[in-house]
Design brief:
The complex is a heterodimer of chains A (about 210) and B (about 130).
Chain A lengths: L1 H6 L3 H10 L1 E3 L9 H22 L7 H10 L4 H28 L8 H23 L4 H15 L5 H9 L7 H32 L6
Helix pairs in contact in A: 3-5, 4-5, 5-6, 6-7, 6-9, 7-8
Chain B lengths: L7 E3 H26 L24 H9 L3 H16 L1 H4 L11 H23 L5
Classes of the chains: A mainly alpha (about 210), B mainly alpha (about 130).
Chain lengths: ~210, ~130
């Protein structure tokens, strides 16, 4: 520890602080675990997502065939894909239930208002991740769900038409749509999600866990 | 700010190990779900054939139901947008510092009704076939 202490002054104190941090015992209630489980679901998504990204090919010609290969040929491919599917759905469920817990226990009240806002954005980001990921297998339903999604975005006022062109990669749906959803799903949205998660956890630490009712 | 720290447990080892145990049970549940109900593969995308009765994934069904039920397309987007906006500003819609449920009956009732509406909209989105 002194070797580390010499290179990072104060790290011993910080580690001690984390280890001995006092947690209110009312958080050992299962309804207080929902937020933590949402994080676990996200971590499962990162790990299974890396596995899937190794074999997946984000082109119109190869996307479906590569998912077929993951499902039927790659060792553990089928179970990893199923884990990714279930953890995605449960991440949204758990995030929503966590929000209900925070609402009904009044834990969002002063001084934790901004953490509620960060949590809302995390819920929306989870849905955005699910939406963009749904297109990637390039199945019949997932393709048309994205087409309709872009169509819906297109009827927004002011930004709608441009947003639709950005999503589709053109005035009509093009193969670029898959590339764009792929980049959003693998880079842009996870990066934003991680930033919001870090902010969420820092606020929990700074503002403390709310008292029992 | 905090009234009391009456009962606390140390983060290490008690809290961290309890959380870890719950996390492992959760991951176990994921394996069971994935094994019992695997994510199969449906037919490949066909740009020439629009599927009939197309529905979004379950978490968008509530917005889908609103979009289909409101005749004005712009309003059909604005209404779900306002609902999301209202959710984000909940702390300012309910600014009183009172946390006891019995002392915030009106706000809790409104929120609960909205949640029930969300469930009903999801049910409508799931079961009703829209369009001509």
């Amino acid at each position: 520890m002194s070797w580390m202490e010499e290179r990072f002054p104060g790290i011993g104190h910080a580690a001690k602080e984390i280890a001995e941090h006092k947690v209110p015992s009312h958080t050992l209630n299962p309804i207080y675990c929902l937020g933590g489980l949402t994080l676990i679901a996200f971590l499962v998504q990162v790990l299974t997502g890396i596995f899937l990204a190794v074999y997946y090919k984000p082109t119109v010609a190869e996307a479906y065939a590569s998912v077929q290969m993951i499902t039927y040929e790659v060792r553990f491919g089928a179970i990893v894909r199923s884990l990714h599917h279930w953890a995605a759905n449960l991440m949204i469920v758990l995030c929503f239930l966590h929000m209900l817990r925070v609402y009904y226990t009044g834990a969002f009240k002063k001084p934790r208002e901004l953490n509620w806002v960060a949590g809302c954005f995390l819920l929306l980001l989870s849905m955005g991740l699910a939406f963009t990921g749904y297109l990637l297998p390039y199945e019949q339903l997932s393709y048309w769900a994205s087409v309709i999604g872009a169509e819906t975005a297109g009827s927004l006022p002011v930004i709608g038409p441009d947003l639709k062109i950005m999503m589709q990669g053109g005035i009509k749906v093009t193969g670029e749509m898959l590339s764009r959803f792929y980049v959003l799903h693998l880079m842009v949205l996870p990066a934003i999600t991680i930033l919001f998660m870090v902010a969420h956890f820092i606020m929990i630490r700074v503002q403390g866990i709310s008292d029992p009712m | 700010m905090e009234k009391s720290k009456r009962f606390t447990i140390p983060f290490l080892p008690v809290h961290a190990t309890t959380e870890l145990a719950i996390a492992l049970v959760f991951v176990g549940c994921l394996f069971v779900l994935g094994g019992v109900m695997p994510r199969g593969l449906e037919e490949a995308a066909n740009k020439l054939v629009t599927p009939v009765g197309l529905k979004p994934e379950w978490y968008f069904l509530w917005a889908f139901a609103l979009l289909e039920m409101i005749p004005n397309k712009l309003m059909g987007i604005i209404v779900p947008g306002l609902m999301v906006g209202a959710l984000i500003i909940v702390p300012w819609l309910e600014p009183s510092p009172e946390r006891k449920l019995s002392k915030r009956m009106i706000a809790v009732s409104v929120f609960s009704v909205m949640m029930v509406v969300l469930v009903i909209l999801t049910y409508i989105g799931k079961t009703v076939t829209f369009g001509a």
